[in-house]
């Protein structure tokens, strides 16, 4: 009998699977490739909410953990996954400049991350009339490469079931579950927005937040760090850049749209002053929760059925720490933080 059966191999399922590998637990993952939020994610991480200049929840802990987690995965998979850089936030007016300087010098939770200097002319092709603020300890995780290579790894270990999960084939016993001839002690749903169709957890207040991004080629731009205004532009390689993102509540699907493309172009053109070519456009649905906190916990009646979901737009930051937390909860009954425990919605 397996220790675990995991449903979904996005960021949550991947980080939890990696934790199980390190703990010598037996498991399989049920997953089929799709336009999941994880698969189309930019992978960008930063410790500051750049709209209001406030610290991200548990930022220092999450940044430290994500670097450690994805560096370990680099070694396991023999692929580059971590790109560390600064992020330059374009100021839109003098008031933002004053607020930035004040917070960077007085807010103890922001001091490790915000440079109090105001920067000018970091790149001749970027317009920033009021200058930039620099955020430290930012970067990118190559999520698409991570999911692709980890999927290959699972296949090589006979730990992946390449299929859509069939609830009709699930049988739940008192101390184990059965699924298509398999038995496992615990069942964990890391199924992203598919939670909306999950009979065990669909009552939870998850919202679908559609996001669209695109990859461009801007020959000669030579940008080394992330730049953020209404949209961000993030270096990839050889003057290819990731641009995003849009946020749509009213249209919940994973199809690219002309409306999304136009919005990205208009916001990018406000500060990027060099010709570029759009290479590809992406769309996905972020599984977000009404209080912007993850969903972790156990089904109220099925003691061997669990959920690890709701990572939202900060998946690369949340996934490593939350994988540790749900594992400790399942294995050792260590209490979950109130902010992430699904019982907060009872």
From TrEMBL:
GO terms for cellular component: cytoplasm. Keywords: Oxidoreductase. The keyword Manganese does not apply. One of its GO terms (molecular function) is oxidoreductase activity. Residues 3-326 form the FAD dependent oxidoreductase domain. InterPro entries: FAD-dep_OxRdtase, FAD/NAD-bd_sf. PANTHER family: GLYCINE OXIDASE, SARCOSINE DEHYDROGENASE-RELATED. This is FAD-dependent oxidoreductase. It comes from Apibacter adventoris.
């Amino acid at each position: 009998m397996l220790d675990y059966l995991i449903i979904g191999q996005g960021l949550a399922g991947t980080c939890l699977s990696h934790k199980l590998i390190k703990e010598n637990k037996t498991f399989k993952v049920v997953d089929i490739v799709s336009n999941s939020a994880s698969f189309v994610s930019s992978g960008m991480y930063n410790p500051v909410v750049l709209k209001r200049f406030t610290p991200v929840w548990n930022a220092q802990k999450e940044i430290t953990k994500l670097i450690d987690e994805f560096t370990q995965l680099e070694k396991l998979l023999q692929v580059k996954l971590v790109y560390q850089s600064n992020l330059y936030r374009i100021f839109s007016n003098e008031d933002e400049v004053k607020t930035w300087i004040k917070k960077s010098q007085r807010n103890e939770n922001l001091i490790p991350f915000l440079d109090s200097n105001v920067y000018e002319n970091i790149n001749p092709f970027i317009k920033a009339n009021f200058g930039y603020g620099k955020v430290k300890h930012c970067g990118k995780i190559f999520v698409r490469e991570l999911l692709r290579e980890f999927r290959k790894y699972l296949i090589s270990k006979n730990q992946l079931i390449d299929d859509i999960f069939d609830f009709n084939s699930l049988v739940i016993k008192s101390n184990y579950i059965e699924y298509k001839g398999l038995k496992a002690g615990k069942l964990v749903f890391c199924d992203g927005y598919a939670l909306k169709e999950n009979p065990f957890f669909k009552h939870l207040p998850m919202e679908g937040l559609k996001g669209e991004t695109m990859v461009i080629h801007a020959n000669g731009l030579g940008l080394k760090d992330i730049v953020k205004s209404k949209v961000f532009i993030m270096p990839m390689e050889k003057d290819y850049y990731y641009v995003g993102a849009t946020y749509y509540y009213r249209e919940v699907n994973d199809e690219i749209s002309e409306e999304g493309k136009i919005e990205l172009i208009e916001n990018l053109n406000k500060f990027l002053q060099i010709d570029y070519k759009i290479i590809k456009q992406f769309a996905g649905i972020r599984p977000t929760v009404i209080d912007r906190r993850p969903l972790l916990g156990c089904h109220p009646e099925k003691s061997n059925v669990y959920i690890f979901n709701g990572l939202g737009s900060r998946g690369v930051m949340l996934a490593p720490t939350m994988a540790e937390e749900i594992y400790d909860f399942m294995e050792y009954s260590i209490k979950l933080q109130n902010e992430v425990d699904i019982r907060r919605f009872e």
